[in-house]
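Page 47, continued from p. 46.
Same chain as before, 360 aa.
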Amino acid sequence: MAELVGARPRQLRTFRARRDVLDELPDPELIKRYRLDRAGILFVADLVREALTAPTNRNQALSPEMKVLVTLRYLATGKMQQCSSDDLGPSQQTVIRVTRETVYALAQPHIVRRFIKFPLTVQETQVKRREFEEIAGFPGVVGAVDGTHVRIVAPKEFEAEYVNRKGHHSINVQIVCDTHGRILHQTANWPGSVHDARILRESALFTGFERGMVPAGCHLLGDSAYPSKKWLLTPYVRPQPGPQSAYNRAHKRTRSTVERGIGQWKRRFHVLHGEIRVSPPAYVCRIIQVCAILHNICKDRRLPVPEEGEDEGDGAVFHEDPPVPLPPVPGRVREGLLYRDEFVNLHFIDRPQPQPRAAV
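Result:
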């Protein structure tokens, strides 16, 4: 009886009020904060509604729309604290849990395949070839490939493998973009110490080209970090005047689409611009993948890319290094290099040379 008298009364849990930002904020403000307009946010929520809907409404369970908003805010800023300080309602611990749940729901294979697709049919590749050729007259291009590093905190396991050549821990991400900056293919599961060429060699993209799954005559453009192949055209390291120089100029202008695409992608989701402070690395890889999916959804909806510095968290930026060329292989004739010479002599032999500037 004494124990019952001395027992403390049970305290009722209190919940912070949650804002209905979808009805409160206009589309321009939603895009600034969450990178999607109202219809886009609802579209993403519908993609994962089944996975994110709680079985009961105990403890005022968050709706799929609220979970998507919390996740988008984190991806846009890279800061968990920003999500819970935005008056959305959830505590920081809830934000962490909800973000992880939503990221894994969006990273399901059927969603990835729906929004990140490499052109494989003749009709699809013809469209890409025409769009790329309009840039600088470079024929047969269906995509431009490049690698980019996303910084992470030092992992507990295999820590040394994640140290890149700049001495930072990172994930090395392979990206293929079209002329609009849309991501056609992405590989985001390699530590920062792995060379771009190996990532390509181990990717499904490499297998697809090597086995003839991509229509004949289609090419990727890559920088000097990649090996020359019959389907992968790289620049000359020391081009001769004439066709080789004309080829390099057209190659640079055309391949710049992937550099712009990566820049837009990272500017849209600032979590990629600084250091991702979550673990393990496998979860970081899913975050990277989800950012690619959402970037393509934004492209499909023709939403603007944020300006530099617009609502971008702490402003930390990870600058890329120039590519590391592959070391030469002495005594070995490279089939890809011979193909490149044939390609140049076929398509760039009659290109006009730039005129020297007149002296002022």
